[in-house]
Structure formats: C-alpha cells, structure tokens
Amino acid sequence: MIRRSLQGLRVVLVEPSHPGNIGAAARAMKVMGLRQLVLVKPRFFPDPEATALASGAEDILASAQVCADLDTALQGCHKVYGTSARDRRIHWPVSTAREAAGEILADLGNGDCALLFGRERTGLTNAELDRCQVLVHIPTAEEYHSLNLGQAVQVLAYELHLAALVLRPPQTAPVVREKPAPAEEMEGFYGHLQQVLRCTGFFQPVRETRLMRRLRRLFDRAAPSQNEVNILRGMLTEMTRWATKVDKKDQDSL
Amino acid sequence: MIRRSLQGLRVVLVEPSHPGNIGAAARAMKVMGLRQLVLVKPRFFPDPEATALASGAEDILASAQVCADLDTALQGCHKVYGTSARDRRIHWPVSTAREAAGEILADLGNGDCALLFGRERTGLTNAELDRCQVLVHIPTAEEYHSLNLGQAVQVLAYELHLAALVLRPPQTAPVVREKPAPAEEMEGFYGHLQQVLRCTGFFQPVRETRLMRRLRRLFDRAAPSQNEVNILRGMLTEMTRWATKVDKKDQDSL
Q1: Is the CB of residue B161 less than 8 Å away from at least one CB of chain A?
Q2: Residues A144-154: what's their mean pLDDT?
Q3: Which of A182, A180, A219 is nearest to A74 (CA)?
Q4: In chain B, which segments carry CATH 1.10.8.590?
Q5: Residue B212 has pLDDT above 80, yes or no
Q6: Looking at chain B, which residues constitute the CATH 3.40.1280.10 domain(s)?
Q7: Which of A31, A219, A242 faces B144 most closely, judged by CB atoms?
Q8: Which residues of chain B are within 8 Å of residue A146 when distances are taken between CB atoms?
Q9: Scanning A195, B135, B202, B231, which has its CA 20 to 30 A from the CA of B22?
Q10: CATH fold of B183-252, please?
C-alpha cells in the first residue's frame, strides 16, 4: 500500500486542561499514523489519566514535546492550520476538515506544518489564530457544535490518514517554488513591519490590530520564501535608514 | 440548509464496559445530528461518568433505549451495519466508513437502519456479525488499529453528517474574499513602490529590475484586493511622509 508521509506534521494542543484529552489525542493520532504531539503549557502532564486514555499510544506521549509558548511549538513550521469551532468574521481562509487534510498533505511537501487545537472551553485566542494561515472547520449539527478535544483530533487525524492513502501521484508538475519561510521568520518580519509602520504614524490607535491582521492575511497568501522575507526586511531597514538619514543630514547641515 | 434526515438511524452499542464511552458516544452523536442511542446490556448505565462525558448531550442519554438483547435493539430495522476492526475471512460485504455513510443515507429512505458497535476489547461476535448485512471498516494505520469506542462512533457520525449534507451545494460558507485588484491598480502600486524604494536607496543600480521582478512575483501570488492595494499604498505614502516629516521638523527647528 502506498501511503504519503505525514511525518512533518505537528499536532499542537494549546493549554489542554484535561489530561484525559491528551491521552485520547495521542491514541487518535497513533491509530491514524500521526506521531508528533506538541503540548503548549498543558495543565497536567505527564499524568496517569493521559497514560490510561492513550492505551497503546504511550510512545506518542513519551515523545511529546512540552513547550512554554506557541513560538517554540511552531519553530521551523512553514504553514500553520488552526482549528476553530466558531465562525470568524475576519477574513481568514477557512477549509473544511476534508479540504484541509488534502492541503496539509500538499504543504508537507515543502516542509514541516502544524495543526493547532485550542483549549477545551475557549479554543484558540485571536492572537493565536493570527499565527494560522488557514482555519480548519469541522462541520457539525446546527444545534450543537461542541466537539470534544480528543474527538476533534480524531476527525482531523482520520481525514489526514485518508488523504495520505490517496494512491495517485499529483497530477500536475509542481510549480518550482522556493520553500516558504518558517513561522518564526514570518513573525520576525511582521514584528519588523509593525514597528516601522508605528514609526511612520500609519496606524491610528484603534486600527493597528485590524490592519496588522489584514497585512498578515495578505502576506500569508503569498507565502514568502526566506529570500523574499529577507528582501522585505531589507526594504523596511532601508526605509528606516532613509527617514533617519534625512534626519542626520539635516542635522549635519546645521 | 438542506440536510437529509438521519432520524431513522439507531446507533447500537453492544455491551459497552466503560460508561465514559457511552457518554462520549452520545456527545459524538449529538454534535453530528444523530439522536437514537440504543444500549445492549451496558455494564453500567446510567452512570455519572457517562453523564460527565456526554457534556451537553445528556438528552441523548436520557432518551437512550436499554435492551436486554440484540433482537430487541434491532426490532423494526430493515438494514443492519456492523463496525469491525478486524479483517474477516468470511465474505461479508465490507464498506469503508465513507462508503457506508452514503449507503446508510440511501437505506434510510426505505425505513429504519442500525449501526452496531461492539465491545471495547472484543468487538462484535460472529453471531452478532451474522445479523449485519454490511460490515463497516474504518481505515487505520497499519501498525495500530485500536480505535476507542467513542472515537469510532465519532468517525462514523462525522461521515454520516457529511453524507447527509451532500445535497446542499457548498458545505461551508465560502471564504469571503475580495476581488483581486485590476491590473492597472497593481501597476500603480508597483510604480509607487519602486519610486519609494528608489528614494530609500534600497536599489543598487543593477539590482533594481531584478528586485522589482521578485517583488512583483511575491505580490502577484497574494493577488491583493483593491482595499489591500489601498492599504499598501497608504503605507508607502506614510513612509514617505515619515521621512519628509523628520526632515521638515529638523528644518523647522533651524
């Protein structure tokens, strides 16, 4: 049987409260051939209840990476998918679980990816969703949306497994593209952009968050390579130097 | 939204040992729009752990039918599907979860159907499988097949929900995307960008054409909308004003 690799995919649980859900997620992953579990500030871990519910997937728990923050969890990932139960008015691209599975498979060809699951009660914060290029939505009944964390992981893992099983090779020749830059490089760029834009007075106070979110969506769609990030940051540096140089020159001419 | 009815479908758990699994199954069902839970000789039921894991799906538990034998559970069903993790040598028709979901939807048009899930450790007996017209198989990784009962119910319920949704054209709200800006607007933006970058001294003479080409490729991939082009040009204008303002202020202070 031919099965495409899901190796480069991290399943990231952000601040899970119930250790049983961590165990259930590990089992759901293993049964569908996923291996990399990353836990951001789990409330209890390791924990006997996690181990009990892993039931045969203890190896996934043993090799799970525990991180103090999301930055560490996403280091080296070039594409981040975030699961979200709620409809978001902001214009994130949204894929269904099934669509996302196919997209993730394709993205794994360019390097590591992450799939984020939020807290049991409150999900992912807007700041965390800002780190995601794509939101993943699991269709549910109208009257009741509350999918348990372990079961949300199960549905996505199942879809990923099926997507990986697709036998036929990609039908079109891949466009030769440089690899997208990893998440931390994009964060560096966004931080730099925001800082320069603050200096310029481009942001009116209330608009800053909303504008940065729009700019993120715009650049995320382009998925800049490392070279391109370097060019963009070079531009920001030169713009700053420009403003500063004019300043300096004038002062020199005093 | 058009959704075909799953009303006539019974989810039958045969001799479940762990009440937590009954609760998880109820939640998995409700979140995917299934309502009829039937329990054949549950070890513990009702049970506080079942209630805890149902978490919002207590109504499914409250209306669950508890039966002393499988005959009672299947009464009035014209088609019975049985889930099975193992490969069976006997020649039952086997459908994958996805195929079965479509078949069950079609069968519901002719009357009530049942979907059987076996015991946590041992599944369904051969005598119970004899009651099934179709076996349902959830594809798993080669190395580890052991899907938890609640998660098996979740996967099937999810597939049934999607199958029921099939009639309605798009499965999720389409991503709200603004129309890409027309070519002349993009040209206006590129011209503006080039002019500002010239001022900053970002271009070394030979690199200008090549760099502008790279920047075009990058922004073309994102296909900015008119609004986004306006934001980008606003940034360029503010950057210029920033440089000039510093200049001015210094001159004013002369």
Answers
A1: yes
A2: 93
A3: A182
A4: 183-252
A5: yes
A6: 9-165
A7: A31
A8: 27, 31, 55-56
A9: B135
A10: Helicase, Ruva Protein; domain 3 (1.10.8)
Cβ partners under 8 Å of residue B191, min gap 6: none
* pLDDT, averaged across chain A: 87
User: How many angstroms separate the CA atoms of B40 and A218, rounded?
Assistant: 55
pTM metric for this prediction:
0.79
Strand A134-137, strand A79-83: pairing: parallel
Q: Tell me the per-residue pLDDT of B21-53, one tens digit each, with 9 for 90 and over.
A: 999 999 999 999 999 999 999 999 999 999 999
- B9-165, which class in CATH? alpha beta
- Judge whether B176 is closer than 8 Å to chain A, CB to CB: yes
What residues of chain A, 67 to 86, have a C-beta less than 8 Å from chain B?
none
Do B24 and A211 make contact, defined as CB atoms within 8 angstroms? Answer: no
Amino acid residing at B66:
V
Beta bridge partner(s), residue A65: A38
A interface test, pick of B239, B250, B251 with most A CB neighbours within 10 Å: B239
pLDDT in tens, A222-237: 888 888 888 898 888 8
Q: Which of B69, B13, B5 is closest to B45 using CA atoms?
A: B13
